Each structure stands twice: as C-alpha cells, then as structure tokens.
Amino acid sequence: MKAWMIGPFLITVNQLSLAIAFVITYFLLKTLFKVDGKIKDEVSSSLVTGLIIFLLCYKGLPLITRFTDVIKDPLIIVYSNSGLKGLFFALVIMVIYLFIKAYHSHFSMIQWMRIAFVYLFTYFLSFWMIRTLYFLFY
C-alpha cells in the first residue's frame, strides 16, 4: 500500500481516495442533479453528520472495549484501530441515525432514501474509480 508522510501524519492511498471522492461527490451533486434544494440540503447535512458519528464511534470504541488501557495512555484512542467489529458498530450506529433522521423528516421516506442512495452510490463509485486508476497507473 502506498503512503506518504506529511509531518507526523501518514496518509494512505485509501484515505486520499476517500477525501477526493467526497469532494467529487459534493460538487457533482450540488451542480448536476436537479432536486429540490431543501431536501438535498437536509440529506447532505444528515449524511455529513452521519459521517462524523461514524468516525466518533469508530475511533471511540476502544474507550469502551479497552477502558483500562485508555486510562493508562489516552493516546491509544488516536493511534488504535477498532478493527472489523468497530467498523460494523460504527456503521450500525450511523445507519440507525440516518433512519431516525429520515423518519422524522417532513419529506417522504422514499424520496429521502432515494437521494441518500444517489449520494452514497456516487461517493463509492468515485472512490473505487480513483483507487482503481491509481493502482492501474502506479
């Protein structure tokens, strides 16, 4: 796996691809798709909030699972990996949040989920395209 050191941070190809895919998705959906602005803004802000919840749950899981280690050395939260269990835990919490948000929205659930699907599909498609093109040429 290719990675670059930028100061004290190690940036991998996957992380860079995820960031670029996020920017591409944001600009693509804000400019190309003609959807009601209110629902598009609500769905996009909910997805960004869901992403923040995902990151907090993924990085915060060692606080629950390895509490004694975290008390001894608090930087374990920053440097530890939650693994596959942490990934599934964070995904479940994020999906629950998005369903609750869609249920309490004044838009229909079908319309809300359709726009969320377009956002997520565009995001993952651009992520895999960027990652595949990188590994194809390097």
| Unreliable spans | none
Strand residue percentage: 5-15%
Shape: flat
Alpha-carbon Rg, integer = 18 Å
Number of self-contained structural domains:
1
Tags for this model:
78% helix; flat; 138 residues; two-stranded antiparallel sheet; 6% strand; mainly alpha
Give the secondary structure arrangement, pairings included.
Blueprint lengths: L2 E4 L2 E4 H19 L5 H29 L1 H6 L3 H4 L3 H21 L5 H29 L1
Antiparallel strand pairs: 1-2
Helix pairs in contact: 1-6, 2-5, 2-6
Protein name: Yip1 domain-containing protein
Organism: Cytobacillus kochii
Keywords: Membrane, Transmembrane, Transmembrane helix
Written overview of the protein:
This protein has 6 helices and 2 strands, in the order ββαααααα. With 138 residues, it is mainly α. It has one domain. It has a two-stranded antiparallel ribbon with strand order 1-2. α1 packs across α6 and α2 (37-65) packs antiparallel against α5. The relative contact order is 0.15.
How would you sum up this structure in a few lines?
By secondary structure, the chain is mainly α. It has one domain (3-111, 125-137).
